């Protein structure tokens, strides 16, 4: 029986992946650098840096220097997380809370970003713990982030359901011996075949966890 849901954040709780992708490629265009879209999308869901990859595709490019420039560019971008937060999620989180389901966020984003998202979107009260992959030695698809969530929630792995949108996140969930519900975004070429079940929109979350996972 499922007693806990562990959510990825980007692409699940907020529709941020398409925005991040746009920023990366706008920046690269500004710097006259090339990088295949499929290579970028392979990194989705991890803390792995894209800059070593970009260096391989662009002669004379220095990955550390490029990362520094991009960090400044990233910080200059304005984000209103409420604009990319699906309001329908509130009633779903409220329903899960009433069902006494434990909830966690396990994201590859930095902890300050996770805190900003949950505070801005007013969803911090629904989550029992927040975990950033940046604070761990290995990134998804390594299962450590989900095992840590299970430990902090005090719920066995076999009673945890991971909600993910990326291949790396799905693989991490399965490596943690957890059930995984994938959210398939047709804008990205993410392989979701390892997941136990798939939905195409977060609005179907409640229906799916009731029918498929017995919550």
TrEMBL record:
One of its GO terms (molecular function) is hydrolase activity. The keyword Hydrolase applies. Keywords: Hydrolase. It comes from the Bacteria. It holds the Pfam family HAD_2. The keyword Hydrolase applies. This is HAD-IA family hydrolase. It comes from Enterococcus gallinarum.
């Amino acid at each position: 029986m499922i007693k806990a849901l562990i959510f990825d954040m980007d692409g699940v709780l907020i529709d941020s992946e398409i925005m991040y992708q746009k920023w990366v490629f706008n920046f690269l265009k500004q710097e006259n650098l090339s990088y295949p879209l499929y290579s970028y999308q392979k990194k989705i869901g991890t803390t792995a840096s894209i800059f070593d990859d970009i260096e391989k595709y662009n002669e004379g490019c220095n990955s550390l220097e490029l990362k520094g420039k991009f960090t400044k560019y990233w910080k200059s971008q304005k984000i209103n997380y409420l604009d990319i937060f699906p309001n329908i999620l509130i009633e779903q989180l409220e329903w899960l809370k009433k069902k006494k389901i434990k909830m966690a966020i396990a994201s590859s984003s930095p902890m300050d970003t996770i805190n900003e998202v949950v505070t801005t979107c007013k969803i911090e009260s629904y989550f029992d713990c927040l975990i950033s992959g940046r604070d761990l030695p290995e990134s998804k698809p390594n299962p450590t982030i989900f095992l840590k969530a299970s430990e902090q929630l005090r719920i066995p792995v076999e009673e945890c359901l991971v909600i993910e949108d990326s291949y790396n996140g799905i693989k991490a969930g399965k490596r943690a011996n957890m059930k995984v519900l994938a959210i398939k975004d047709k804008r990205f070429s993410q392989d979701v075949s390892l997941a136990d079940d798939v939905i195409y929109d977060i609005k179907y979350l409640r229906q799916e966890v009731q029918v498929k996972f017995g919550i």
